[in-house]
Amino acid sequence: MLRHRLIGEILVTHFHVSGLDIERGLLGQQKDGMRLGEWLIREKIQTGDRFLQEKDVLRALALQQGLVYQEHDIKPEDVDLSLLERVSINYAKQNKVLPLWFGEDGRILVAVSDPMAYWIMDDLAVRLGSQFLLVLMEAERILSLINRAYTRKSQTVDLANEGDGFSEEDVDDLVDNIDLSDEAPIIRWVNAIIFNAAKERASDIHIEPGEKEVGVRYRIDGILYETKHANKNYLNSIVARIKIMSGLDIAEKRLPQDGRIRRKIAGRDIDMRVATIPTARGERITIRLLDQSSILLGLADIGFYKEDLDKMEEIIVRPHGIILVTGPTGSGKTTTLYAGLNKINKPDLNILTIEDPVEYQLAGVSQVQVNPKIHLTFAAGLRSFLRHDPDVIMVGEIRDVETAEIAIQASLTGHLVLSTVHTNDSAGALTRLVDMGVEPFLVASSLIGILAQRLLRRLCPHCKEPYVPTREELSEMGVDPDRFFAGTADRHPVPANFRSPPVGHVFRHKGCPHCLNTGFQGRTGIYELLIMDDDLRAMSMKKIDANQIKRLAITKGMRTLRQDGARKVIAGITSFSEVMLVTTEDAS
Fold first, then answer.
1. In this structure, is residue 587 part of a structural domain?
2. 213 and 132 share a domain?
3. pTM of the full predicted structure?
4. I want to staple 395 with a disulfide (CB 3.0 to 4.6 A). Which of 212, 289, 419, 430 is the partner?
5. Measuring CA to CA, which residue among 223, 161, 225 is closest to residue 192?
């Protein structure tokens, strides 16, 4: 029967893991004292066109054990609160288990991430006092559900709304290696700030001293939102606590400082970059949150249209040349570069990166941090890389002619180079390099592709509402009104269960509790991919204006940023206003 098959056999048969990788895993798990699935995930073993993930291993275990893998997220209001009385929150988090509800047969359904931990199952039977049935979920999803379910149960008092001071009341139950037992209110308040930011998937926390209070704002999906505040009297204590966490000098209040914090929050590894700066009203702190799960994204996960995805995947595996990603700060360039590295990161390639800073650590990649104090610049690091037999080099940014010329030299001598520049569109990157002082013929001969990109907010799936756009709106977005109302306009592909607008309609934002009344939830990218060919190389060698290069690229099939955004509007992914906001320079 299927339940008696070995887990490795199931991974080969159903999840396209190679038999060789399973053999390596069996040896590696014994050596490292790990489960086979844990080892395969850690080593980034391929399954099809992506890395093996925890959900794949759980699906395989479900097949082997005759259990159910929970595909969809569970809402905290669906959890039977009476069952939470039988299991403490600390026990649930430590063992990554959560009783959910009573099934039709009277058995309790319990979410677990490790059905093979038999000692926990025996203990659960005693605690629950009833028979139970296991439902498999990833550890991160279980921890997230635990936090939300127990928060709902306890009707937590939010410490930040307790007036002028700090209350001794509990805040949101903090997780993992954030200390739950510490009663010091400053520590608990700072922990709550960090946990809530991670829960809301904020990218930045701003702690700002005002005249009478300390304000806190989160940047979520690129927009700043006010959240909490505290009495100004507590500013020094808050700053001192964060400095201690990030290894900074608490006595130094006159100079800016930079530090780092690493925490596991709701099962997610979060790196935090901390920056302090003295202001007229006291020290201000900005914390950048870097979710390590982001590095698992592939090119297929970040919003490419299939035609552009195919082109990008073709040039990323070329043995030499330069690929540039361009766009303003905060447009997702680093995420795209990491997604590209994930695509080509194999044991037979030597990949080196020089970054400022190293935001995410990639397995199998040698990453170097820029340090101007010791003269380790992009150019110096890149020059050194050439003596380390690289196959692929990633340079965080090309800022000057020296870095550009070394990158070009590397690409012309048999290396693939990935980097970024700051320009408004893809054609502008060509003229930007020439303006730096690089010879046009070197630019033309080394570049193989330029990707311009922007990030825009995705509409909240719970509250987006349809409306009929005007013909003027459609024309401004570069969409043929007649084709749109006939239902034949180009649209971005979406999953089968995705809610798309009716023919002749698009969606706009509204606002609901799911999206903090913003109307948006999450972000996606829009892209403009210019693939170099002989005609474009010939034109770029003549120092021709970037707009003329762009027009030629469009005649060869390139879609502009606004055109890519329009496809996502028609599909119901984002709104007309979002696309127009981030493509103001696009004259398509």
1. no
2. no
3. 0.68
4. 419
5. 161
